[in-house]
Amino acid sequence: MRGERARLGVTIPSLTVVIEPEFNKMVPEGVTCHFQRFPFYGGRAGLAPGEPVEPSRVIEELRGLGALAVEATEILTHVNPSAMAMA
């Protein structure tokens, strides 16, 4: 039965594409992973494709992620995880 040993809740930035497949490969039998994304644009919000990103834009975006990460974490509690992580 899936998840009978444990459920792992993981919050991840929306741009990340490798975390879900990697976590699912690594968990042992009987452990399931449950993911919740929060918006993260890597400083590119409002920029044209190919336009360079100023580091200050990324820093400013990171400063505002607290509430979004908390919201994603709260949503993950709905599956009653055994443990939670942010990747």
Pick out its properties.
33% helix, 87 residues, three-stranded parallel β-sheet, 3 helices, alpha/beta, single chain
What do you see in this structure?
The chain is of the alpha/beta class and 87 residues long. It has one domain (6-86). It is built from three helices and three strands, in the order βαβααβ. It has helices spanning 19-26, 55-63, 65-76; strands at residues 6-13, 31-38, 83-86. Strands 2-1-3 form a three-stranded parallel beta sheet, sandwiched between helices. Strand 1 (6-13), helix 1 (19-26) and strand 2 (31-38) form a beta-alpha-beta unit. The two termini are 26 Å apart. The mean pLDDT is 92.
How would you summarize the topology of this molecule?
Blueprint: E1 6-13, H1 19-26, E2 31-38, H2 55-63, H3 65-76, E3 83-86
Parallel strand pairs: 1-2, 1-3
Radius of gyration: 15 Å
Mean pLDDT: 92
How many E strands?
3
Supply the number of helical segments: 3
Low-confidence stretches: none
Question: What is this entry, summarized?
Answer:
This protein is 33% helix and 23% strand.
